[in-house]
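FAQ: What does the model actually see?

It sees only this:
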Amino acid sequence: MYEKQEPECLPPPLFPGRKELSQKEPDFAIRQTLDAIKRKEADVQAWAQVRTAEELDADVVTSASAPLRAMPFGVKDVINVGGLPTKFGVAASSDQPVRFDSACVEQLRSAGAIPVGKTVTAEYAFRNPGPTRNPWNIAHTPGGSSSGSAAAVAAGMVPAALSTQTGGSIIRPAAYCGVVGFKPSFGLVSRDGLKLTSESLDVIGWHAASVDYAKVLADVLLPKMPAMTTRELRGIQVAITLHGSAERPDPEVVSTLRHVQKTLERRGAHCVEISIDKELDLLARAHTAIMKYEFARNLAPAIRQCGHLLSASLLNNVEEGFAVPDSLYFEMCAVQRELRTSWHDLSNGADLILTPSASGAAPLGQVHTGAPAFNKMWSVLGWPCLHIPVGVNSNNLPIGVQLIADWHHDFSLLELATTIEEQLNQKGDTND
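And it is asked to produce this:
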């Protein structure tokens, strides 16, 4: 059952909030980051590379008066940071530093944020996991492929970290590590400086210690688009689906989602179950065809040069991708185009969709990062998705829910998620 009360094992502390940081000296956040990394990195192993204290201190001096005021952040190691190598979770990659930042890193730097280093990724942001472990219980996976970013935030090392999602690589690690995960609408964040594995699916997003921190990055990285931005829950329409691709949510996940539903209803929201299993299954098939087809072609040069150093899982997926017929690929791309603009039909005109983020809490072991059964359909649609942590399961591992909004309604999603997070964190909000 869902538990709102304090777990027996306390969760890892998150990074101090924005209000607290604003009252501290400019170098306070960097000192917090370096101290947390020093104390926890040996167990968590979230970082592929960390910049030196001297480099970070120099950035503090130049960014202390900027809007984000020396806020530290991590960067998944498939996204370029000038002066550091981008290794994609692959040992055979070059140690040569890249010259330029990616566009998203440059935007954050210009706003005063400081890249601390590169966070661990699964091999080429696919399935073969890196060394990162879940800060809640290091015997469990942190999820993937954005494992290091989610774990670094969950361990209180940084307040936010850039990540990517092709199937479920932002939302699922957020669920397993008990942090906020935000996948923006497809196409809103520049992918310049990102190693693309699927041009039709890849999205740069981020993990954050709170919805507030997620909004801080959104204010910098997303274009301001006209949309409903109310935080009021009364009167909003929420569609609910428990359907996943080839998986069903476990009872504790369902209990958590029902708790969120009742919390929303008590605040005046109208929640209605929707039946779109047929469409979601079609989207899951579309994801498989599109991802495999594009992944194979984008990874072919790396395989030609160093295929003997790559995992069997990746090589098998590339082989399967080259076997996808062109006709099937174009057919599934047409499905993607047709359904991407079908929000009203698929959601019954709701303001939000509420659904599980994963089938359960983080699995035991490190050999598998979990399945994107509740994520990849929404990745095909390109709609914005956000994971909110809610509580812990019977094993004291975090569980939460996924909120989805219409394409380009990213700020609407973030504003409503702010209120939902506040309501769920109220001390009087107990089990139903």
